[in-house]
Amino acid sequence: MALKLPLQAPEFCQNTLLKEWNLQCRSGNLLSALQKHWKTFALVVFANNYESSKEDRLAEKFLLRPMEHFLCNGDPETILKSLKEKDQPSQLCGKVFKNGEPTYSCRDCANDNTCVLCIDCFQKSAHKKHRYKMSTSGGGGYCDCGDVEAWKSDPYCEIHDAKTKPMSDQNPIEVLPEDLTDRASALFMATLHYVVQMLTWEQCDCLPSEIQPEGELDDSYITMLFNDELHTYEQVINTLQRAVECTQEEAVEHATIVDREGRSSVRDGTFSYCEKARHIIEHSTSRHGSKPLKVQIMHTIVVAHQKFALKLVTWLQDIIGKSDGLRRLFCTLSTQPYENGESLIEKLILSDTQMWKNARMLVHQMMMSGVLMDQECKKQFSIIFTKHYEAITREFVSDDHNRPVSITSLSVQIFTVPSVVGY
Ligand SMILES: [Zn+2]
Ligand SMILES: [Zn+2]
Ligand SMILES: [Zn+2]
């Protein structure tokens, strides 16, 4: 049976699925059970070229909601809310900024211009009446509310000032119900395994065997254009107008996405149709002896699974933000040895420069959300980072042109947190 796109959703029953996942989880096979589901449904959602609102809706229904129900074994909203209530009050905000979110600094009180507040903290802070400055975050970075070393005065907003109870030393994982801890552990590991695998996947026309569709594949490909620092915006726009016969407006849109996210799908269709565009792009950008723009012809199924992996990164970030216990559990699991003595977080750090910009940014945001709010996790993370520092920087230096954002920026963000310096 050949895979035909667009792929219709087969019969779907969340309860049957959850029963199967629970059963497999108890025998240590959750990853295979998830892969079996994702093998079809990641394509149903992400391989059909739906507009993004429809894609989001289907991803919720077929992929994310079942995982939340599995994790909670009940209504996610009620159960996650009751977990949140068990959190230690934190005097640190630590909210990680998404691209486009406003940030506020105070000219009177900030110790340097990297010290910023999120909008919620700012509106409840004394700095609202000082000489403040508003900016827009490019993604990454986090709110410094509650960090006494970041502010000359008024380090706490009203929300975080109220939480001045002394912290207890209890491990937050211990307050989680035991069966939830088991399911969360299996789910975090399986999800992160898939994320690492797909974001570092380098084959263009096949998937890891566990999720490769059966039979022959449809002739359905994508011409993927990557960013570099050699070619100007104008060159990319001119080339695209010729290569994929689009309007100037469309070419500008592609160039903007390439610049912002590190890659953009500029054409989809049969292999030979996509190949034609690649040939023209490479040919016209390599004249005068310069290195051509990087273009890859990727099968739709590979791009679809990578889209889903990115969705899961954001989902994980969101879930671990729901409770101290889930966050600590995620950090502990993701930093412990997994394969060849390497942890999954190490695998992500070490392949940082192989990933495209958007993947890298989302992974950084997830890591920051994981480590910044928890001293124990910061410590774990800095041990790993220190261990790989040389390899990471070597990789960074050898990859000279197209990686403006790098692990270096992550380390700067994490290691400028004053409390980490002692480790
Ligand atoms: Zn804040
Ligand atoms: Zn605050
Ligand atoms: Zn101020």
UniProtKB/TrEMBL annotation:
Domain UBR-type: 91-162
Cellular component annotations (GO), alphabetically ordered: cytoplasm; ubiquitin ligase complex
This enzyme's EC code(s): 2.3.2.27
Pfam families tied to this protein: ClpS, zf-UBR
Reaction it catalyzes: S-ubiquitinyl-[E2 ubiquitin-conjugating enzyme]-L-cysteine + [acceptor protein]-L-lysine = [E2 ubiquitin-conjugating enzyme]-L-cysteine + N(6)-ubiquitinyl-[acceptor protein]-L-lysine
Zinc finger motifs (UBR-type), residue ranges: 91-162
Group of enzyme by EC: transferase
Pathway the protein contributes to: Protein modification; protein ubiquitination
Keywords from the named record: Acyltransferase, Metal-binding, Transferase, Ubl conjugation pathway, Zinc, Zinc-finger
Function of the molecule: Ubiquitin ligase protein which is a component of the N-end rule pathway. Recognizes and binds to proteins bearing specific N-terminal residues that are destabilizing according to the N-end rule, leading to their ubiquitination and subsequent degradation.
GO molecular function, one term: zinc ion binding
Keyword Chloroplast recorded: no
Matches recorded under SUPFAM superfamilies: ClpS-like (SSF54736)
InterPro entries: ClpS_core, Ribosomal_bL12_C/ClpS-like, UBR1-like, Znf_UBR
Protein family: Belongs to the E3 ubiquitin-protein ligase UBR1-like family.
Record protein name field: E3 ubiquitin-protein ligase
Transmembrane segments: none
GO biological process: protein ubiquitination; ubiquitin-dependent protein catabolic process via the N-end rule pathway
